[in-house]
Design goal:
Helix content: 55-70%
Strand content: 5-15%
Largest sheet: 5 strands, mixed
Structural class: alpha+beta
Number of strands: 7
Order of helices and strands: HHHHHEHEEHEEHHHEE
Bound molecules: adenosine-5'-triphosphate, magnesium ion
CATH superfamily of the domain at 207-354: Histidine kinase-like ATPase, C-terminal domain
Shape: elongated
Number of helices: 10
Length: about 350
């Protein structure tokens, strides 16, 4: 029993030594060579005799073991410390990088680990934010889809329940159901655009186009909408040869969105469209005399699904995706949408394109 206890202690020490030597592995050769050279130097300086040689050899052997053991155990502690820190980072135990400490000899490694910690923390925060945005987006999409589908369902059920034969309402119900299918179709198109833009699949085809021709087409398409609301739609005169650089179809989508907004959110007065010619770029603007937008909402109207007055927008068929699409398209042109607005007076949206 006693003997085995003694043996246990010896084997523990030997194991410990073996482990320390393993950790000192990198230094074994350099430390051994240094001690061997210094021992030989002493041997030759003091005088060569066999006794001295054996004493120095013994000294060399013991010193090497002691130094390697010290170096090994120190390295073992340092590596264990690094291991513990990495485990703690994995378990999210640190709040700030200052909690990570490796001691004064490993400051560089400490800096690297701190940087890695900060990056991982940022990545995780970004992923959480993305996840939240995605959930919110899906929630909004399902809500917006549900509204027209329920309305269509309602009208169809009422018609089937007998209203079909009621001359006073049957046509109106069908027209309303039809309007909701148009809204649904617009919403799906907007969603497809948003997803194409965000996945980088929206193909752009940049070319010079003539602004006069462009405005003429827009005027023809938009005039009936303005007339329906009793609004004036004025396209200001543009130099006949003014050419701008961009994807004409996508810029048309931008203009349709801005002009439709101007018409939707204006009760009386006019909508003015024009160009301010500058030296290298030209600024296109859409100005209305409508309800305007408060300072508080101005920053948010470009967010997906954001509407200042949800009920009002929905009643005019808006889902709050238009300006988000406008912003993305203009960013793809290296441009930016600007807005100035005074509640009760009107709004002006503008952006510039290369000449
Ligand atoms: N010219 C404007 N005058 C007043 N408010 C505006 C004007 N343009 C946009 N807004 C406000 O900004 C919100 C966001 O506009 P956006 O075009 O993104 O959505 P929408 O017109 O409601 O719906 P969609 O364009 O998707 O059909 C609108 O709901 C409206 O409240
Ligand atoms: Mg809109």
């Amino acid at each position: 029993m006693k003997q085995s206890k003694g043996w246990d202690i010896v084997s523990k020490i030997l194991n410990n030594l073996k482990e320390n030597f393993l950790f000192a592995g990198n230094y074994i050769l350099s430390i051994s060579v240094t001690i061997l050279i210094s021992t030989l130097l002493i041997y030759f300086i003091i005088g060569a005799n066999l006794k001295l040689f054996f004493v120095l050899a013994l000294f060399y052997f013991i010193t090497s073991i002691i130094i390697l053991n010290i170096v090994g155990s120190k390295r073992k502690r340092e590596i264990e410390n690094v291991k513990n820190i990495i485990n703690a980072i994995r378990k999210n135990s640190f709040e700030t990088p200052e909690e990570i400490k490796l001691g004064k000899y490993l400051l560089e490694l400490e800096g690297e680990i701190k940087a890695m910690f900060l990056r991982t923390k940022n990545d995780i925060a970004n992923l959480k934010k993305l996840e939240q945005v995605r959930t919110e987006f899906l929630g909004n999409v399902s809500h917006e889809l549900r509204t027209p589908i329920f309305a269509i369902q309602g009208y169809l059920e009422t018609l089937l329940d007998g209203a079909l034969k009621d001359e006073k309402v049957n046509k109106t119900f069908l027209q309303k159901a039809n309007q909701h299918t148009i809204n649904l179709n617009n919403l799906l198109n907007d969603l497809i655009d948003i997803s194409m833009i965000e996945s980088g699949q929206m193909k752009m085809s940049f070319r010079y186009f003539n602004v006069n021709d462009f405005f003429e087409t827009l005027n023809l398409e938009m005039k009936p909408h303005a007339q329906q609301k009793g609004l004036e739609l004025n396209f200001q005169k543009v130099k006949p040869n003014l050419q701008l650089f961009g994807d004409k179809e996508k810029i048309k989508q931008v203009m349709v969105n801005l002009i439709m907004n101007a018409i939707k959110y204006t009760e009386k007065g006019s909508v003015e469209i024009g160009v301010t010619d500058e030296s290298k770029r030209a600024l296109i603007f859409v100005r209305d005399s409508g309800i305007g937008i408060s300072e508080r909402d101005l920053d948010r109207i470009f967010e997906r699904f954001y509407r200042v007055d949800k009920d009002r927008s929905r009643s005019v068929g808006g889902t709050g995706l238009g300006l988000a699409i406008v912003k993305h398209i203009l960013e793809a042109h290296g441009s930016k949408i600007e807005v100035k607005s005074t509640p009760g007076v009107g709004s002006e949206f503008s952006f510039s394109l290369k000449k």
